[in-house]
Design brief:
The protein is 20% helix and 34% strand. The chain has helices at 2-15, 48-53, 103-108, 154-162, and strands spanning 58-59, 62-74, 77-86, 93-99, 117-119, 122-128, 132-139, 143-150.
């Protein structure tokens, strides 16, 4: 799952290098049956500050020690993300809330892989190695909550993911 975080970071940094979009009159019409370009998939996301407000200040006995929220466009997609770090040292947990705007955007970013189970009625993918664990929950095909950590178990990461109230977001109910 860490590679997904790297992909999101890469996509956001790539946006800074892009030329501004062409005016609508300068864009040629698509031929019938053509696959839509990524820019045609762009959907407004919720503000990054809204996602940041979903991150709890503390989970269990782990206080939030850092937070980042940003919103940008990359590869024709609008992406909003908020990320909090909880605790310090080798057992710190990172909690990410991501809005990619659409299910098509999620597929383009590689986030639409099949779930491995359910968590509180939502599709979830869990992975664990001896040194790293992650839990990724998908909501409505466009919102994702991911908790990752070293030397922590999946049960703890399940708790982190469930602290985020995605029902407060449009289509997150």
């Amino acid at each position: 799952m860490t590679s997904r975080l790297a992909l999101v970071s890469f996509a956001l940094s790539l946006a800074a290098c892009q030329d501004p979009p062409a005016s609508p009159s300068a864009v040629p019409a698509a031929s019938p049956g053509a696959v839509p370009a990524p820019s045609a998939l762009a959907t407004p996301t919720v503000p990054a500050a809204t996602l940041q407000a979903l991150l709890p200040s503390q989970v269990g006995d782990l206080p939030r020690t850092a937070v980042v929220a940003e919103q940008d466009s990359a590869m024709g997609l609008t992406i909003a993300r908020a990320e909090g770090t909880y605790g310090t040292g080798p057992q710190a947990v990172t909690l990410l809330v991501l809005d990619v705007g659409s299910a098509e955007g999620a597929a383009l970013m590689g986030l639409a892989a099949p779930p491995t189970g359910q968590l509180a009625g939502r599709p979830v993918r869990r992975s664990e190695t001896p040194t790293q664990a992650s839990v990724l929950v998908s909501v409505g095909g466009r919102y994702f909550v991911e908790a990752t950590g070293s030397r922590v178990g999946l049960d703890l990461l399940d708790v982190f993911v469930q602290t985020v109230d995605l029902s407060a977001l449009p289509g997150g109910g």
